Amino acid sequence: MTAKRMLIGLLLAAPFVGTLMPWTYNRAAPPLFGMPFFYWYQLAWIVVTAVLLGVVAILTREPNDV
């Protein structure tokens, strides 16, 4: 397995690891704009996942793609 493929795998696994361990984020504090930690943590992962998928798309792009 090449280093690039390993990096891609880690980038794709990060959202699963970050959201499948509820004991790390199952709490109300610290709130952000009045929203409990649990909710804004989950919403933050939506943005982080989109960014990570964009990076993976760039890394997996063929050299002749536009």
What can be said about this structure in brief?
The chain has about 70 residues and is mostly helical. The chain has helices at about 5-20, 35-60.
Sheet bearing the most strands, described?
none
How many domains? The number is 1
> Which range does the strand content fall in?
under 5%
* Poorly predicted residue ranges: none
Alpha carbon gap, first and last residue: 27 Å
Commentary on this structure:
With 66 residues, the protein is an all-alpha fold. The chain has one domain (7-59). The protein is 61% helix and 0% strand. It contains two helices and no strands. The longest helix has 23 residues, at 37-59. It is elongated, with a radius of gyration of 16 Å. The protein starts with a helix and ends in a 7-residue tail after the last helix.
What topology does this entry show?
Elements: H1 3-19, H2 37-59
Helix pairs in contact: 1-2
List its traits.
single chain, 66 residues, mainly alpha
